Amino acid sequence: MNQVATPKFGVGAPVRRKEDAAFISGKGHYTDDLKVEGAAHAVVLRSSLAFAKFTLGGLDDARAMDGVQLLLTAADIEGMNSIPCKAVLRQLDGTKHWVPHREVLCFDTARFVGDALAFVVADTVEQARAAMEMIEVDYEDVDPAIGTEAALEDGAPLVWPEHGSNEAFNVGMGNKEAMEEAFQNAHYTTKIKVVNNRLVSNAVEPRACIGEFDGDSGRYTLTTGTQGGHAMRDLIAKNILNVDPKDIRVVTPDVGGGFGTKMFTYLEYPLCLIAAKRLGRPVKWLQERTEHFMSDAHGRDNVSTAELALDENGKMIGLKVHVLANMGAYLHEFGPGIPQVGITMTSGLYDIPATWVEATGVYTNTVPVDAFRGAGRPEALYLMERLADKAAHEMGMDPAEFRRKSFIPDDALPYTTALGRMYDTGSFGAHLTKALDEIHYSTFAEREAESKAKGLYRGIGLSTYVEACAFAGGEEAKLELNKNGSVTLLIGTQSNGQGHATAYGQVIAEYLGLQLDQVEMVQGDTDRVATGGGTGGSRSIPIGLPSVKAASETLVRKIKEIASEKLEVGTADLTLEDGQVRVVGTDQQISLADVAGSQPDTLSAAEKVMQDECTYPNGTHVCEVEIDPETGKTDVVNYVIVDDFGVTVNPMLLAGQVHGGAGQAISQALCENTVYDETGQLLSASFMDYHVARADDLPSFDFSTSNVPSTTNAMGIKGAGEAGSIGAAPAVMNAVQYALRKNAGVEHIDMPATPVAVWSAIQDAQS
C-alpha cells in the first residue's frame, strides 16, 4: 500500500511548537522577568466598597514615608484622567447610547470594589504598600446595584444617577413583524431562560507593566503583556497622555495567556508612564492575583430568554430573544460591542426565517465586563443550543434529528441569515453524523444502564455551533532576508501562547527552503513593527497567514531574480532548498547568505492580503457525563468534537486550541462562578473560592475535523482559537440536564452545575 509522506513544513504539517523548549525550561521572558535598573515600584489603592463617595486623608504623611517617590490622586492627573469606551452603538430608537466618563483614578466616587483611588510609587514595593496603608479613606456608603435583573427593577439604586436608569443601551435586529406572525401560526412554541455566569479569565500570568520616559527624545516606553500593542499605544497617546502616538513605544515580551483580557488598556499603564516622566526613572507595577479578580475586565454575565416557534414537523420557523448583558459599573473598552456581536449569531446553524433579537446593557456596581474567549458568540450559541434541546424534549424528538430538521442545507450555501450573517461554506449534517458515530450514539442506552447499575445518572448532550471570527481586514507581513541566510518575519499579531512562530514559520520555511529555526518572528514592538491589528477574534492565522504566504512568494521571486543573474539561468530553473538557490538538475547553486550579502540594502518583501468577510467555523460537540446523586459531583466521561475549520494549517496546534477552548467552557459549565453579595463585595476573589477546572476535571477529547474550505479567506482557513469555548458549555449542560431530568425530574439547571447546585436540584425535585 502506497503511503503519502507527511510534509515536513507548509500548510497541513504537524510541526511541533518551536516556542515550547524555552517555555518549559523556564527560559521565557515575561514582563516581571525584566529587571530594569533604577526602577521604582508602584501599587494601587483600591476601593473596599462597591459604591461610595470618598475623600482621601493622610496624603502628606504617606508621601513623607521612607522610600516614597510619588503619590498620585485624581487631582494630580487632571487632563489625563479618562479611559474611553471604543464601542458606542446605534440603538433601536436611532440614537447612540450615553457613555459615562470613566476616570483613570476616581475623583470622589468609587463604583465597584477594586475601583482605583490612588497610585503610590516607592523605591520598593514594600515601601509603596506601607505608604498606601497610611492613606485614610473616608467613605460615605451608597446602596449598590447588584444583580443583572435586580438592577432594572423599579426603585433599584442607580449606578449613574445623572443617567436616570441602569439601562446602558438597547439594540436589536431582525424582523419583528415576521417573528410575531410566525408565533401566531406556530404548531408549538417553547421558551427558556438561562444564566450565562460571570467569569474571571485567570491567565497563568497576571498583568504587569514597566513605564519609562526618555527626557532627551521625549518618548515613552511601555513594556507589558498585551494582545497587540498598536491599538493600546494609540489609545494611551490620544485619549490619556495627549501626545502623538509616535512618542510612545509599546513592547510586549512573552505573554502567559490573554483570552481577551490582555487586549485592553488598563489604568496602570498610563499611570506608570506618567510617574516615570515625573520621576525621571522607570516605574514597575506587578499585579497580584486578587487584583486580577477585582479589577480586570470580567466575561459573560448574561441573563437571556428565548422563545422558539415550530411547525407540525418540528421545524423551527420563528425565534425571539432578549439578552440582558451586565456591563458592570462602566462601559469597558469594547464592552457594549460584545452582546451586539453575540446576538448576530443567535440563530446558529438553523434556517429560521423569522427572527427578532434584542440586547439590553445593564449597569451594576461590579467589575466592568468585556471580551472573554469567544466574546458574545459563546453566550449566543449557549442560549440557542439549550433552547434546541428543550424544544426537542417537549416535542418528543431525538435532539440530533430535531436539529437536522432545521439545519441550513448544504445546497443553500452561501446563506444569509435573518440576522445578516453570510455563511459561505459548510456541511452541518456531515459533522453531526461523524460526531454521533464517534461517540457511539446508538448504543448510549447500554452505557446508561451500566452507570445506573453503579448508582450513577448518565446523560448525553450535544451542541452544534457556528461562530463569526477572523473579521474583515488585513495584517501586513514583512519578511527580511538576513546576511546569514536566515529570514525574519515582522508582523503585528501577538502570540499569547498560540504558537504563532511555528504556524507562520512553517509556511515561510517551506517557501524559502529553510529549517524552522532559521526563521525568526518579531512581534510586540511598535517601533520595529510598523502596524498591527493584534490578536483577538481568532484572527491571527486566518488573517495573518495569507499575508505571510504572499510575502514569502514575493521574497522568493526577488531572490530568484538576483540568483538568476549570478548563476546565468532563468528564474524558472531555480529552486530554494536547504538555504541554497539551486539550478534544477545541476550542482550549481548560491546560498541565501550570498544573495543577501550581494545587496546594499536588506532584501525584504511586505504584503497585506485583505479579507472582506468573516470566516464561519462550525462543528458538533457531544458529551457524556456521570452524576453521583449522593454528592452531586459531575464527571465528563466521554467527549467527541468534530469541527469544520476549512483548511488545517497545523493539526497539532489546532488540537491544542480546541482542547484549551473546550476546557475553559467545561470549567464554566461545571466549576467557575463569580459571586458578589448584596453589598457588592466580591466573595470569589481568589482560587480559594473560585474553582477553575484542573486536569482531573477534564476528559480526554476525541477531536477530528470535517473540513469544507472557506471561500472568504484567501487560504480557505476558518479561525479556530475560540471554537472550543463556544461548543462545549451547551453540550455539557445538555448532558447534565438529560441526566437530571430523566433520573430525578429536574426540569432546569443553570451553569455552573457545581456539586452543591446539582445535589440541591435533585433534593428540590424529589421533595
Task: Tell me the layout of helices and strands.
Elements: H1 20-24, E1 40-46, E2 52-57, H2 59-63, E3 68-72, E4 109-110, E5 116-122, H3 125-134, E6 136-141, E7 167-174, H4 176-184, E8 188-196, E9 208-214, E10 219-224, H5 229-241, E11 248-251, H6 268-279, E12 283-286, H7 289-295, E13 302-310, E14 316-328, H8 337-343, E15 354-363, H9 377-395, H10 399-406, E16 415-416, E17 422-423, H11 428-438, H12 444-453, E18 457-466, E19 477-481, E20 487-491, H13 500-512, E21 519-522, H14 540-567, E22 574-577, E23 580-583, E24 589-591, H15 592-597, E25 603-607, E26 618-627, E27 634-644, H16 651-670, E28 702-705, H17 723-744, H18 755-766
Parallel strand pairs: 1-12, 10-11, 14-15, 20-21, 27-28
Antiparallel strand pairs: 1-5, 2-4, 2-6, 3-5, 7-15, 8-13, 9-10, 9-12, 13-14, 16-17, 18-26, 19-20, 19-25, 22-23, 23-24, 26-27
Helix pairs in contact: 8-9, 9-17, 13-14, 16-17
Keywords: Molybdenum, Oxidoreductase
Organism: Pseudovibrio brasiliensis
Protein name: Xanthine dehydrogenase family protein molybdopterin-binding subunit
Account of the protein in words:
The mean pLDDT is 97. Helices cover 28% and strands 22% of the residues. The protein has a 7-stranded mixed β-sheet with strand order 3-5-1-12-9-10-11, sandwiched between helices. It is globular. It contains 18 helices and 28 strands. It has 767 residues and is of the alpha+beta class. It holds the Pfam family Ald_Xan_dh_C. This is Xanthine dehydrogenase family protein molybdopterin-binding subunit. InterPro entries: Ald_Oxase/Xan_DH_a/b, Ald_Oxase/Xan_DH_a/b_sf, Ald_Oxase/xanthine_DH-like, AldOxase/xan_DH_MoCoBD1, AldOxase/xan_DH_MoCoBD2, AldOxase/xan_DH_Mopterin-bd_sf. It comes from Pseudovibrio brasiliensis. Keywords: Molybdenum, Oxidoreductase.
